[in-house]
Design goal:
By secondary structure, this protein is mainly α. It is built from 4 helices and no strands. Bound molecules: heme C. The site of heme C has 26 residues, from helix 3 and helix 4.
């Protein structure tokens, strides 16, 4: 009985972390970010693993990047601008940016 309970708890924890990762990926698709970004390849915008590497250890990065995605901008990764994304809810942006910054090469 005890073993079954432990196995169940472990399965639950695993399912929860998979669900969290999926929902960030789903939001990235839903809000059209995937048209210009992928996790590991530069498309129009930088690969998200490169974004994570650039801001590693920068505690101000989440707030900065949320603002940048909302307002758009250029010059950090090259001359191509990112258009503003004003319609993405803050909660979704927070999930997406937290996910991006957690990626590792
Ligand atoms: C039309 C293409 C396009 C779309 C759509 C787009 N981006 Fe970008 N993104 C870019 C480009 C180009 C850059 C590089 C801007 C620069 O050099 O400053 C960028 C940069 C970024 C950065 C790094 C910013 C920095 O200052 O380092 C993040 C994070 C990001 N995008 C997230 C997102 C998210 C989240 C979405 C969806 C809500 C999104 N992008 C939608 C093109 C796009």
């Amino acid at each position: 009985m005890k073993i079954a309970a432990i196995a169940l708890a472990a399965a639950g924890a695993l399912a929860a972390s998979v669900a969290a990762a999926q929902s960030a990926d789903d939001l990235i698709k839903k809000h059209g970010c995937a048209a210009c970004h992928s996790n590991d390849k530069k498309i129009v915008g930088p690969a998200y693993v490169d974004v994570a590497a650039k801001y590693k250890g920068d505690a101000t990065a989440p707030a900065k990047l949320i603002e940048k995605v909302k307002k758009g901008g250029q010059g950090v990764w090259g001359p191509v601008p990112m258009p503003p994304n004003p319609s993405v809810p803050d909660a979704d942006l927070k999930t997406i940016v937290t996910h991006i910054l957690s990626l590792k090469k």
